[in-house]
Each structure stands twice: as C-alpha cells, then as structure tokens.
Amino acid sequence: MLNRTYTYKLQPSKKQIEIIDHNLAVCKSVWNHALYKRKLWYNSRKCDINKCSLISEYVVKPFEYPNYHTQSAELTQAKKTNPYLKSGNAQAMQQTLRKLDRAFNDMARKGMGFPRYKKKMKSFNLLSNKFEINGNHLKMPLLKNVKLRKSRDIPDGFKIKQVQIIKKASGYYANLMIEAQVDIPSPLPDGHAVGIDVGIKNMLSTSDGLIIQRPSFLDKALRKIKLLQRKLKKKRIGSSKWNKLQKKIALLNEAVANRRKDYHFKQAHKLCNEVGMIFVEDINFVSWSKGIFCKQSLDMGLGQFFEILEYVCFDTDTFFAKVNKDFTSQICPNCGTHTGKKELNVRIHFCPECGYEQDRDIAAAEVVRNRGLNAAVGAPVVKRTSAVLDSRLQALEMNSRDSGSAFPHSLFVQETAL
Ligand SMILES: [Zn+2]
Fold first, then answer.
1. More confident residue, 408 or 76
2. Is residue 143 within 8 Å of residue 19, measured between CB atoms?
C-alpha cells in the first residue's frame, strides 16, 4: 500500500466558506470539551495516595477514564439534545476526537507536550469513499462540489481516502490523502553511503565533505516578523489596525513555512542524487528544541527535514536509516578512538592516535556513515593499518593450515573489501 498527501488550494463559494467556518467552530468546541473531560480526570488523580494537600484538592465524582470510545459514545448522545452539535458534520467531529486521542498517545510515546485548548481550529478531516475530482472541482460530502486550483494530477491507480480541510491566512486548502493498492519494496542497502550530521552552525554536513549552512532567507524573514510583532504590541487588541497587522504576520509566517518546506525538498533531492544509502542521527527533536538549541532548531525545522528526507529517499529508491547519535562528535572516524569532548569553538577534529585531521562536522558525519554501514551491511568499517591487516591475515592462514579446515572466506572478503 502506498500513501501520499497532495495539497490543493480551494476556491470555495461564500456559502461553502460559511459551512467550513461553522464546522471549524463546532469541532473546536468538541475538542475543548473533550480535552476538559480528560484534564478533569487527570487532575482528580493528582492527589497523593496517603495525604491531602493543605491548600486545595481536586474532588470530583469518580468516573472512568474518557478514552476515544467513551468520548465518541458521549458525543453521539449529546448530539440528540444539543442542536449546536447536531448542526456540525458527524465525521468531522469524530475525527476531532480521534486527533485528540492521538495527541494524548503522542504525549506518552513521543514525549510531546500536554494537548492545549484551542482558540482557533485550523482544520478538520473527512473520511469517505465518495471523494472524486472532476475537472476543477472536488466532489465531497458536506461541501458537495467545491472548486479547486488543480496544481497537479492525481496519479493513476490512486484513490482519495481522506480529505483534510485547512484554513490558513492565505485561504482555504484541501489535503487529499491518496492511496494505491501496490506493494513497493523498501529500498535495500546498496551503493555509495553518505552519513549526515546536523548542527546549528552548519545546518548539515555530509561524510562526502558537503556543508550546507543555515539558510539566510530564514533569518531575514524572521527579523521582519519580529519587527511587526513589536508593532502589534502597541496597537489596541481587536482594533482594525491590530487585525491588519495580525493578518500580515500570519501571511508572513505562512510564507516562511512554505519556503522552508520547499528548501528542505530541494536539499533532500540534492542529497539523494547518485547515492545508495543515507544515514542520519536518531535525534529526538522534541527534547532538542527544549535545550540550548531551542530557537535555531525550530527555525530550521530539522525534524521536518528528516521526515522529508526519508520520504524523498523512498521515492528515489535510496536506503534510509537512523543510527545511534551518542558521541558522534567525539569518536575518530578513522580509527574509532574516543578523543574526548570538544568545545563548541573547536572546529577541527584531530586524532592523537592515528593523526587523522578533518573538519569537526564532517568527521561526525563520517562516524554516522560508519555506524550506519555497520548496522545495515554488517561490514567492519574501521580502517586498519596495513601492518595489522597483514598480521591478521597471516594468523588466519596459519590457523586454517593447522586445523586443516577450509579458508574462512567470509572473513577474508570482509577484511579486504576495504
Ligand atoms: Zn584516529
């Protein structure tokens, strides 16, 4: 099964905009109420088992944990008596509950933050097997026929499974999740291998010596946004000038996000060009962005870049894998010696054991490549000096002669392949 997401700009009529906005508002209240119920449950269980707090204690009538199924059943019940809920699309509301459920799961599994109340709902999802694109129109439940700017064709063999309607500063969009019933084998480890090290000064460095710096367009745009935000503070909240500025900032943020994504795709394609395997560090960007790298890492969106890189690798039949990130900047890529921690201003890796000298980030990328190769292909990647290799080969030959067994080919091939 192959899944893809295509985004199209919608050109809805006035009435359709009304329907979208109304459903966004209903979904927002569903989200906030469901989140309130879950928070209530969490808060009522905060009390220590053997004592009460001196200040206050959260006491509610005990109730079962509101998981997706109980909340969904509750919604169905509430719709019978609540005309506001009844006016919204049932599918969109159910999917909102599912999204909330996923947010709670992500919190436990990926270390994401506690879900928050929403001031604005930005999107809702619709599931159906009746989606269809006719010319410049998308046929779907809820909106019937909605006009879209057809920027690309849906490839043959794909079916639209889900549609996400999104409201952005620049208008309305539809994310079409399409699916094809084909089995595409994952790329196999083969060909030239590249390791990638990411950082703050250099956005990424490869083991082939390519260094890509932090894109400058980001800094320019972010400076402009900051300036406008400072202006916004001086305006009265809700005034027409405040609204205008707010809109301007939202548009700029959207433009930055678009350019960043575009940039990531371009870099990913560049990296995948004529390469068989790509290895990256397995970094938890959630905790990364909380640490000293906070702002810059968010600006660069490295987490998004890795996702895009994995996607592009799959499309270009390049093997992609994540490797352990520990000590990549401290180990010598040439001989594997632990050379100790480097200060941030030390830009060169120099190994006192074997005398290997290399740019710090490129050396780290080489360590990543070596680790990846070791895990994927199983080849020993530490280069040995010829004297060591010769003596080991001699020992092997002696061994096989003494025991009379056949020469261990596999070992021989692995050693000399380098
Ligand atoms: Zn060394």
1. 76
2. yes
Q: What local confidence, expressed as pLDDT, does residue 2 receive?
A: 85
* Measured CA distances, 140 to 124, 134, 184, 231, 414 (Å): 14, 11, 29, 42, 58
Confidence at residue 45, expressed as pLDDT on a 0 to 100 scale:
79
| pLDDT digit string, tens, across residues 271-328 | 998 888 999 998 877 666 666 555 555 667 788 899 999 999 998 889 999 998 888 8
For 220, half-sphere exposure in the C-beta direction (CA atoms, 13 angstrom radius) is 6
Neighbours of ion ligand 1 (CB under 5 A): 332, 334-335, 337, 351, 353-354, 356
The per-residue pLDDT for 414 is 38
**370 CA from centroid of ligand 1 (Å):** 13
CA distance 111 to 102: 12
Task: State the distance from the centre of ligand 1 to the C-alpha of 192, rounded, in angstroms.
Answer: 23
Element (H, E) at 180: strand 171-180
CA distance 23 to 15: 12
Q: Residue 171 is encoded by which pair of tokens?
A: 């208008």
For residues 344 and 330, the answer to whether their CB atoms sit within 8 Å is no
- Residues 140-155: tens digit of each pLDDT: 989 889 999 988 888 8
Interatomic CA distance for residues 78 and 66, integer angstroms: 15
